[in-house]
Amino acid sequence: MTVTIKDVAKKAGVSPSTVSRVLSGHPRISLETSRKVKVIMEEMGYTPNMMAKSLVSKTTNSICIILPKPAEELFSNLFFMELIRGIVTQASRSGYDVLISSGANEKEELEAVSRLLKGRRVDGAILLYSRKDDAVIEFLENNSYPFVLVGRSDRYENILSVDNDNVMAAFDATNHLISMGHERIGFVSGPPELIVSRDRLEGYRKAMQSSGLQTQPEWIVEGEFLQESGYRAMSFFMNLPNRPTALVAVDDMVSFGVLRGLNELKYKVPEDLAIVSFNNIPLSELSSPPISSIDIGIYHLGYTASQVLIQSIQKPDNNTGYTNRFVIPHRLIIRESSMRGPGKE
Amino acid sequence: MTVTIKDVAKKAGVSPSTVSRVLSGHPRISLETSRKVKVIMEEMGYTPNMMAKSLVSKTTNSICIILPKPAEELFSNLFFMELIRGIVTQASRSGYDVLISSGANEKEELEAVSRLLKGRRVDGAILLYSRKDDAVIEFLENNSYPFVLVGRSDRYENILSVDNDNVMAAFDATNHLISMGHERIGFVSGPPELIVSRDRLEGYRKAMQSSGLQTQPEWIVEGEFLQESGYRAMSFFMNLPNRPTALVAVDDMVSFGVLRGLNELKYKVPEDLAIVSFNNIPLSELSSPPISSIDIGIYHLGYTASQVLIQSIQKPDNNTGYTNRFVIPHRLIIRESSMRGPGKE
DNA sequence: CTTTGTGAAGCAAACGGTTCCATAAGGAGG
DNA sequence: CCTCCTTATGGAACCGTTTGCTTCACAAAG
Question: Which residues form the HTH cro/C1-type domain (chains A, B) (predicted)?
């Protein structure tokens, strides 16, 4: 059925090896043969069999994305979409295919990774949002498979990773509120086992401190990257004796929850509570009022991750141990939700 | 390096074929050998090489998703994320991997599909949002590769597809507004080359007609699946001499645009204009006011597409020509944006 | 005791490429 | 005119599996 390299060879009156060489642009092939073979390939509609190619070359020209289980559970999925978009775009430019995989739990995830990497179905992996210690990372490292982490791990030092400077980002976000005149600023954090939560919290603390502002322990609440957390945090804050006039939320979804709550209670944003959050997902400018957010360059994050991974696949000698952490710049997008100071009490 | 079937065979003192048969659960292998081999596989950490397997079996256990170019351009991406989520979940349950691919234009797309299918990297494809006539569909059909279309094509009859009954959905949406007492109802459509636009428009027309309501030509405007279209449509409608009191929008993103516009002009929703749209993306309930929307079961759409595709890969004899169109049920989610009739003029 | 049937395992040929090594032709240098 | 490169190509082994056909041993049947 399918036309193979041998069929082409036969029709062209050359050997299979010659055809193969034409295909790969081997230098010692006469122009004449090359042309002839190419014409015949075109005529017969030849397409190389990737499986056969991979078998001998031990290379697949594809990478995989390992989604953490929360992705299955909807999570803040715009984030992932953007990331995937960046990855797929870059990979495709480098001639790589992208395979999406996920597992219901860490064990399943590990199985999937092992099957894909050891089974030589992909050449490398991109991991999203790692936990503190991670069997998957462990596995990949021990077998020295190429991989890059989107996010940061404080446990593993020398692994490739692409991330933002979340401490600095939170510092900037908080400083913005301070510069608008706010002094009582709350913080809604994410799950403490995620490093991103801790980094952002740290940045908030630093900003407060460096401006000589007190931060009350009750102004910091923990939650998830979900609306509910924002809703809950909001009602907690608003009942405080001297409640904050502004807050920094670890994720835009949290802000939406806060917004919904404030709306129900007829509070005004930013008059009664100013808000800044992170990620700048497309919704941020759609809410009313639009939310100020730190744009962390999600697409860029994915794009870079793919680039770094593919580079490391193609020349694995990059063990300088130097530039293995790539930091994507962030920027603050100021919108209505933080456009006013605490003023009118 | 990697441990192959031969290594296992040698260590177990059997032939490679025996190991292979143990792996595939061949009936004529003694329990004893089977156990022995399995232990050794475990010991040596054997993982089958998928490439070799695929080469001989001519099967890859993976499928691909072909994203239309607009996906690269952000589009209403929550839609795609949900769809992908459904596809990946189902595929993974069936033991299939999913490959994401896209091209900048139709030609590139075709190249990608050809490379993947003819190159035997995947066993089948899922196409999203097809244009009216499509070189990709043409190609897949001519080569009788398994594929399923998410959406509908009126040109190709016998292809597998998963879709909603968009005519009925629009009928329901419109009827809901009518039942709230609205009589002047506008419609914001999508690009006319997308079948989904036309179907929804048709449903709207039918509903109006079946209630004996007049539909003014100027109440129907064309746009894209984007906010801007909504914004523009809004300002057009609101300047009409006897403007509509309600409107149906072809996509939630359009509603957001409308909402933003109305907000700027200090109009109230639903008092001044009631709104219903389609897709029920997660944002719909986050806007203020929350938007009534037809939930078309995006996740389910993806899940089913994957299921249907894999089924057709595994037994391609399903040429009954009967059940090749799968319709996913929709349901109307009523929210604040359509909770009041035209009443107070 | 020889023939036939059956279950368990091995041999070797594929699958569609790549690549090392060998070879033939032709031209340059001695 | 013979030797030695160089260049363009062919031959064959190999990548890691699967699978049809054999083979072998042994028990049942004639």
Answer: 4-33
Whether A77 and B78 lie within 8 Å, measured CB to CB = yes
Within this chain, do residues A144 and A235 fall inside the same structural domain, yes or no? Answer: no
- pLDDT score at B317: 67
Strand arrangement of the beta sheet that strand A325-328 belongs to: A325-328, A160-164, A147-150, A124-128, A62-67, A97-102, B97-102, B62-67, B124-128, B147-150, B160-164, B325-328
CA distance readout (Å), A134 to A105, A137, A178:
12, 5, 37
Q: Say yes or no: B189 and B291 in one domain.
A: yes
In this structure, the answer to whether residues A41 and A88 fall within a common structural domain is no
| Predicted pLDDT of residue B323 | 75
Residues B176 and B215 in one domain: yes
- Total domains in the fold of chain B: 3
Query: What is the identity of the amino acid at A48?
Result: P
Cβ(B64)–Cβ(B101) under 8 Å? yes
**Residues B119, B193 share a domain:** no
Residues in B touching A92 (Cβ below 8 Å)? 101-103, 112
Q: Tell me if A175 sits within 8 A of A207, measured CB to CB.
A: yes
Contact list, A60 vs chain B (CB under 8 Å): 51
Task: Using DSSP, state whether A197 is helix, strand or coil.
Answer: helix
**CA-based nearest residue to B59, from B147, B129, B123:** B123
Which structural domain, as residue segments, surrounds residue A123? 62-164+299-314
Residue B326 inside a domain? The answer is no
pTM for the whole structure: 0.90
Range in A205-214, B221-230, B292-301 with the lowest mean pLDDT: B221-230
Average pLDDT, chain A: 90
CA atoms within 13 A on the CB side of B51: 23
User: Strand D neighbours with CB under 7 A?
Assistant: A 13-18, 21, 26-30, 32-33, 52, 55-56; B 2, 4-6, 16-17, 20-21, 23-24, 46-49, 52-53, 55-57
In a domain, A285, yes or no: yes
Q: How far from each other are the two terminal CA atoms of chain B, in whole angstroms?
A: 80
A289 preceded by a cis bond (ω within 30 of 0): yes
**Structure confidence at residue B193 (pLDDT):** 83
Inter-chain touch B260–A85, beta carbons under 8 Å: no
What CATH number corresponds to the domain at position B269?
3.40.50.2300
In a domain, A326, yes or no: no
Residues B27, B80, single domain; the answer is: no
A89 touches chain B (CB under 8 A): yes
Q: Please check whether residues A170 and A272 belong to one and the same domain.
A: yes
Which of A47, A74, A98 minimises the CB distance to B115? A47
Q: What is the pLDDT of residues A128-175, one digit of tens each?
A: 876 666 788 999 999 999 999 999 887 777 889 999 999 999 999 999
The pLDDT tens digits of the residues spanning A253-289 come to: 899 999 989 988 999 999 999 999 999 987 788 787 8
The CA–C1' separation of A56 and D14, in angstroms, is 8
The residue assigned the tokens 């954090």 is A189
Whether residue A137 is contained in a domain is answered as: yes
State the CB neighbour count (10 A cutoff) for residue B264.
Answer: 11
Chain B nearest-CA distance from A114, in A, is 8
Q: For the segment A71-108, what is each residue's pLDDT rounded down to a tens digit?
A: 555 555 678 888 988 999 999 999 999 999 887 778 88
Distance of C1' in D17 from CA in A77, Å: 40
If asked whether residues A156 and A181 sit together in one domain, one would say: no
